[in-house]
Amino acid sequence: MKYIEIDEELYRFIASKTERIGESASDILRRLLNLSVENVDISLPASISQPSLESESAASHHPVFNQAKAAVEKIIAEQNSTGQYNPADEQTASPATIDFDAIVSQHLLSQQKGAVGRFMHLLASLETTARSDFDKVLNVQGKGRLYFARSKQALLNSSQSSNPKEIASSGFWVTTNNNTAKKQTILTEVLEHLGCDSERAKSIAEHI
Prior knowledge:
Blueprint lengths: L7 H9 L8 H8 L30 H20 L23 H5 L3 H17 L10 E2 L2 E2 L1 E2 L2 H7 L5 E3 L6 E3 L4 H14 L4 H8 L3
């Protein structure tokens, strides 16, 4: 597998075409180009490919690379001209409906270590799905105590025993020293803040 560099606009466009959690940029491009996604080697490369620095016969001039690049640029140009896509509008665009069922994977949950691991996994999956809406978790608080913050220190300032952990690499931190029942309550509140109905929220939280 080759790794290539793309500009910010192309990256945002490709990301906007994501249809499922965990879908890679390669999968998205293959889908857009109607190429098969089966039997694709996903091993990590020994080095990062930089097409702009390679020779005329290198990967930057490979037919599939050129086809993918041309196709994406054409789609962006067409959608920009019709007002369908504008990367600058992403911050103000209405968020997509969150698929709450998609955050629960029995297989992945079974690989987590204890209630803390399952709690963190569900929050990380939810953060990936909710994207910009995830900052609503900051509204979930206890009496005189923070449950979520944008820094480890903020949670420690609220409670020295909070045992803060970062939710994946999102920049959001959560306290983890609560018992399992409390973790379920916190996750239920988070889900409700993000628009999940109460019964489904409780059902998802029970996976902790």
